[in-house]
């Protein structure tokens, strides 16, 4: 069954409806379309001609992860927008304070990652060490941490803010922070068995 784009209706502070509409209805939906196209072509590609230097199969497999992560990252991004920003509560803010020293230090680190990354910033819980990290992803399928659970996603490609802010990324990041839906992040964290992960991580 073909993948279908999810619906996201957002009214945000500092990020215009036009910016969201262009991002959601053209870019995000384009990734969904291309993922479907790639998966269909993989059903009929000639596997006997697979080659690591150049082959149709190699190209499709490389583009598969790019398109797939493009879909998933955008869905996580839109999903964790629409809140009031501020601080999370409960377990999430406690974990942030434990790993970064304070919520304010985490916020400074997350925003710095936003200025340094070429594509995405991901606050994620690594199942390798049981800790929260801010990861920079330069593209959808580059620098992606293995076995890490996304808690908060920020898109910092120019298409996420150019309509509203031109090439000025910093004010977009400030606007993003004001619109975080921390309840969504808390829900993602709640699905993780932290005690088991910390036990395995030692």
How would you characterize the overall build of this protein?
This protein is mainly alpha-helical and 202 residues long. It has 2 domains: 17-79; 91-201, Iron/manganese superoxide dismutase, C-terminal domain (minor pseudopilin epsh fold), CATH 3.55.40. It is built from 8 helices and 3 strands. A 3-stranded antiparallel sheet has the order 2-1-3. A hairpin with a 5-residue loop joins strand 1 (120-126) and strand 2 (132-137). Helix 1 runs antiparallel to helix 2 (56-79). It is globular and about 55 Å long.
Spatial strand order of the main sheet: 2-1-3
Helix/strand-derived class?
mainly alpha
Poorly predicted tracts of residues: none
Counted by DSSP, the helix tally is 8
The helix/strand series, from N terminus to C terminus, equals HHHHEEEHHHH
Number of strands: 3
Q: Can you identify the CATH superfamily of the largest domain?
A: Iron/manganese superoxide dismutase, C-terminal domain
Percent helix range: 40-55%
Radius of gyration: 18 Å
Query: How many domains make up the coordinates?
Result: 2
**Terminal residue distance:** 41 Å
Report the top-level CATH class of the largest domain. Answer: Alpha Beta
Question: Averaging pLDDT over every residue, what do you get?
Answer: 97
